[in-house]
Design goal:
Blueprint: H1 10-23, H2 26-52, H3 56-64, H4 70-81, E1 84-89, H5 95-108, E2 115-120, H6 124-142, E3 147-148, E4 152-155, E5 158-163, E6 181-187, H7 194-202, E7 210-215, H8 223-227, E8 235-239, H9 245-248, H10 254-257, H11 263-273, H12 278-283, H13 299-304, E9 321-326, E10 334-340, E11 343-350, H14 355-369, E12 373-377, H15 381-394, E13 401-405, H16 420-434, H17 446-453, E14 458-460, E15 466-468, H18 471-478, H19 483-492
Parallel strand pairs: 1-7, 1-8, 2-5, 2-6, 6-7, 9-12, 12-13
Antiparallel strand pairs: 3-4, 4-5, 9-10, 10-11, 14-15
């Protein structure tokens, strides 16, 4: 009696197929052919394991026909050699691409049926549109095993990888995943809540399991910051713009070079944000910022207000709709910012100090936003803009309230603050950021505006009152005025700070 096909090796199965063809046993032939295919696929997969499991760089070169540059190679080798790897990276460093390479290598070069990958990110859109977009492209381009949909990878109809944004507080989201070779990828790691780090640790206790945490170092008040520090037990790596091929001269294909951070972009952001600003440190240097004691608005607080562009709000949360106008003088821009209740929105800008040219832009913003009120810095040119808008109201061109705000005037709390400017920066900029009272995640021109929120410093005057440094002093340090930040504060100013907390 012939041995059961499942116990035969590939060569024996091939011989059995030939015999069944000769005898015309079509029913059994189909069964054996399916088993032969599975056995061949298994042998092929084990061949990949023998060849590439210990050499991810060779896998990229031989299997994909691609070349990776030095920092990408360092990351892949760290995942191979270390149970936990944390990578803090500058903007446009190819971090999502290398993460997709690691996911694909893990499933292709480890024993079939024994490898599993879990990826997560702060939002569903980030899971689907960032890392898994790269995974889908790679799978399609290089005929990797199985099939990949939006956020799942299946081999022989068995789930071997998925991307998910679990509930923030659900550390049990990953429970039930058991495999000798588990890889967890924490993408955009600053936005991953502590509970999910605990869940990732829980399923990667085996000797061949790995965790890769990767992202921009936006917020020092996070678990990502902790694991990036010496002595954390993680192999912590950093990618600065100055480590990338466009800066070092390392030879890479042109299509790779154009996708990486450029010298021109880095120089532009240095001018926009200021060298030493938290955004410059994060997106150029790939480094965390620790807020100094004299900074009015803390970078960690602002970063926490930019986490979730998918937040859902009630109509009440999106009301009122108001505009703030910081009127530029001299070479400064006039900036108009929109608030929709909790959510900071659009921006309009013009470089002029002539009221008759600024007022039409404010009218346009009113039409487009349907705002019910406009708050305008009334000092200097702003006084003329207020006049133009009130004249426009008399001509029935709008029905919004026009409110002049003199930031040099007395504050509500005269014992605590030097003037209204100090009170606004403290109670709106600092406190609303610290308490999550506004959502800056979908704000137009967000990077520039958030960078400017971090510029002002504070000190105590001779009477022990809080004073915020002047615009002139800020300009001396940063070569430009915080127009965007001032306009945002005006948009939210109403004589008192709204105490409505964002629910995440």
């Amino acid at each position: 009696m012939t041995a059961p096909p499942e116990t035969l090796d590939v060569e024996a199965m091939q011989a059995l197929v030939e015999k069944l063809v000769r005898t015309g046993d079509t029913k059994r032939l189909k069964i054996v052919r399916d088993q032969l295919k599975a056995a061949v696929d298994r042998r092929t997969a084990m061949g990949r394991v023998d060849r590439w499991a210990a050499d991810p760089t060779a896998w990229v070169h031989d299997r994909l026909g691609q070349t990776i540059w030095s920092k990408q190679r360092e990351i892949m080798e760290s995942v191979r050699d270390n149970r936990k790897t944390a990578v803090r990276s500058c903007h446009s460093s190819g971090k999502s691409h290398v993460a997709s390479l690691i996911v694909s290598w893990w499933l292709d070069a480890h024993p079939p049926g024994e490898a599993f990958v879990v990826t997560t990110a702060p939002t569903t859109a980030q899971v689907r549109a960032i890392l898994w977009r790269y995974i889908r492209r790679m799978h399609k381009a290089h005929s990797l095993p199985g099939r990949v949909n939006q956020v799942e990878w299946l081999i022989d109809e068995e789930l071997v990888a998925f991307g998910r944004k679990p509930a923030d507080a659900d550390e049990s989201s990953f429970v039930g995943i058991h495999a000798p070779y588990v890889l967890v990828v924490l993408d955009e790691a600053c936005g991953i809540p502590d509970s999910l780090w605990i869940g990732a640790e829980a399923i990667t206790t085996g000797p061949w399991c790995r965790i890769l945490a990767i992202g921009n170092p936006d917020n020092s008040d996070t678990h990502f910051y902790k694991v990036s520090q010496p002595g954390s037990g993680w192999n912590a790596l950093r990618i600065s713009a100055f480590d990338t091929p466009n800066f070092t001269g390392e030879k890479v294909p042109e299509k790779v070079a154009v996708s990486l951070i450029s010298k021109e972009w880095a120089e532009e952001k240095k001018m926009e944000w200021g060298e030493g600003n938290a955004l410059y440190n994060s997106k150029i240097l790939g480094e965390f910022s620790v807020d100094s004691a004299d900074t009015v608005v803390r970078s960690s607080d602002v970063a926490a207000c930019r986490v979730d562009p998918e937040a859902r709000y009630t109509p009440a949360d999106l009301s009122p709709v108001e505009l703030g106008v910081d009127v530029g003088g001299g070479s400064d821009e006039t900036v108009i910012r929109e608030r929709r209740g909790l959510v900071a929105g659009r921006e309009w800008r013009i470089r002029t100090d002539r009221p008759e040219k600024i007022a039409p832009l404010v009218l346009r913003a009113l039409r487009e936003s349907r705002a019910t009120s406009v708050k305008i810095d009334s000092i200097g040119v702003g006084f003329g803009v207020i006049g133009e808008l009130r004249n426009a109201a008399s001509r029935h061109e709008h029905n919004a309230r026009i409110i002049g705000v003199n930031v040099a005037s007395n504050p509500r709390d005269k014992k605590k603050f030097k003037n209204l400017r100090a009170e606004m920066w403290w109670e709106i900029g600092r406190e609303m950021s610290a308490q999550g009272l506004w959502d800056l995640s979908a704000m137009e021109n967000a990077d520039v505006t958030c960078a400017q929120l971090l510029w002002p410093r504070w000190f105590l005057d001779l009477q022990g009152r809080i004073q915020v440094e002047s615009k002139d002093d800020i300009i001396k340090r940063n070569s430009r005025s915080p127009d965007n930040g001032d306009a945002l504060l005006l948009a939210y100013y109403n004589g008192s700070t709204p105490r409505i907390r964002i629910l995440r």
